[in-house]
Amino acid sequence: xxxxxxxxxxxxxxxxxxxxxxxxxxxxxxxxxxxxxxxxxxxxxxxxxxxxxxxxxxxxxxxxxxxxxxxxxxxxxxxxxxxxxxxxxxxxxxxxxxxxxxxxxxxxxxxxxxxxxxxxxxxxxxx
Length: 127
Description:
Blueprint (H helix, E strand, L loop, with lengths): L2 E5 L2 E4 L4 E8 L6 E8 L6 E6 L6 E3 L7 E6 L4 E6 L8 E11 L11 E4 L3 E6 L1
Parallel strand pairs: 2-11
Antiparallel strand pairs: 1-3, 3-8, 4-5, 4-9, 5-6, 7-8, 9-10, 9-11
């Protein structure tokens, strides 16, 4: 099992930036891909971004590509999501999650492939 704790959410105006962090403990962090997902009110949870265990491969939802950047620091057991040019439609609770399989070469977009989830952090973008 791994424990994940997100931080960095908040209220920001459209066009602004936030950096989310997800600190992991309880399992060998550097063996697992990490993902970010989000859920807006009344909507299903959706994929945002993911990064392989080594950091060598990343993937993004089309809606955030070019604006968000995922990264990880394995020495700090932390994954980050830098969010720039935020839009009101980015408003959601953001969750980080860890892959169920170790050393996956191509990170998964499906939430079913992730087995540990943080409690979420609220991001609100005002227009």
